[in-house]
Amino acid sequence: MSLAALAPDEAAARWSSPSFLKEEQDVARRSTLPFLTTSPYTDQTHLLDLSTVNRHCQLLARALTVMTSIRTDYATAPYIEAFNWEEVMTNLRWLLKEEAYEWSQRSFYVVVFRSQIPPTTDRSHLSLLDRASHEEAVKGGGLLKYWFGVPDGAGRNLATCVWRDTDDAKRGSAGKGHRRASAATKGLYTEWHIERLQLSIGDRAEHWTINDWRD
């Protein structure tokens, strides 16, 4: 079943399920096609065209297909503890070995959006806004991963993006879709804030860190 046919919460839950992650990991490892699913949205206009990014970004995007939350309180937990980063890096090292690629140190830009919305809110409008803004971001280039969860009982949630760099993030968030989504936060969310982080991956992907971003 295409995730595009599911409701937002159903899509997020299905996308985070072990069976779907294993399926996506297998596809990412075998695929020689230029397009990769990097978000809960599976329509063609939401896929990453691997031919538009360099080899480091291609490999990281493929490794990130296994990214998922590992804590039920991911919406409020420290970011580095909320996801299976060790598994992502193991996947990256596997890809490097398979393709005999020498990885050198690289840093990537990470954006985290934490929010709270009244549990009774109709989120269908937000889903449409999110889909439109993601399509814009993909078109702008350099978006390697987009993940969002399901609101908890208090309406708290987390969404996150991994970008090639800050220029891509600025370009990807400059369109009409993002402006509409940003405007919606003022009227629908009771609380929200953004974290800017740096994912640094060392030579041969043997070590990695996630720290606050510094301009």
Q: Please state how the strands of the largest beta sheet are arranged side by side.
A: 4-5-3-6-7
Bin the strand percentage. 15-25%
State the low-pLDDT regions, or none: 1-7
Rg (C-alpha, Å)? 16 Å
The proportion of residues forming helix, as a percent range, comes to: 25-40%
Assembly context of the chains: single chain
What is the N-to-C order of secondary-structure elements (H for helix, E for strand)? HHEEHHHEHEEHHEE
> Per the principal axes of the C-alpha atoms, what is the gross shape?
globular
Count of separate DSSP helical elements: 8
End-to-end distance: 42 Å
Instruction: Label the structural class.
Output: alpha+beta
Number of strands: 7
Main beta sheet strand tally, sense and closure: 5 strands, antiparallel
> What is the typical, i.e. mean, pLDDT?
87
Short account of what is shown:
The chain is of the alpha+beta class and 215 residues long. Helices cover 40% and strands 21% of the residues.
Molecular structure report:
A hairpin with a 6-residue loop joins strand 6 (191-201) and strand 7 (208-212). The chain is globular. The chain has 215 residues and is of the alpha+beta class. It has helices at 8-15, 18-30, 55-63, 79-82, 85-98, 124-140, 166-172, 176-188; strands at residues 35-36, 48-49, 106-116, 143-148, 156-163, 191-201, 208-212. The strands form two sheets. A five-stranded antiparallel sheet has the order 4-5-3-6-7, sandwiched between helices. Strands 1-2 form a two-stranded antiparallel ribbon. Mean pLDDT is 87; it is low at 1-7.
